[in-house]
Amino acid sequence: MASPFTWQGFGQWMFIASAFAFLLLVAWQWDRRRRKGTKAGRAEIVTFLLTAAWSLILAAGTDQTTILAQFFESLRSLSWLALTFVLFTRDGRHTSVAPIRPVIASLVFVEMLQPVLLLAQMESYSDIAARQMIFQISVVFRLLVATGALVLVHNLYAGAMAQQRVALRWTCAALTMLWGYDLNLYTIVYLSRAMPVELTSLRGLAQLGVAGLLVIGAVRGRSALRFSPSRAVAFQSLSLMVIGAYMIVMVGAAQSLAWMGGNASQLAQLGFVLVTSVLVLAILPSGRVRGWLKVMLSKHFFQHRYDYRAEWLRFTRTIGRVGSQTPPLHERVVQAVADITDSSAGLLLVQAESGEMVLAARWQWPTADVPAEAIAASAIPAFEKRGFIVDLDEVRAGIDYQGERASVPKWLMEEHTAWALVPLLHFDRLVGLVVLGRPLVARKLDWEDFDLLRVVGMQLASYLAEHAGQSALLEASRFDEFNRRIAFVMHDIKNLASQLSLLSRNAEKHAENPAFRADMLITLRNSADKLNALLARLSRYGNNGAERIEDVDASDVLRSVAERYNAPGQPQVHVTSGAPCRVLANRDALEQVVLHLVQNALDASAEGMAVFLQAHTDGLHGAIEVTDTGCGMSAEFIRNRLFKPFVSTKSGGFGIGAFEARELVRAMRGRIEVESREGLGTRFTVRLPLTASQAFIDSIEGGRSAPDQRVA
Question: Which residue spans traverse the membrane (predicted)?
Answer without folding.
Answer: 12-30, 42-61, 100-122, 134-158, 170-192, 204-221, 233-254, 266-284
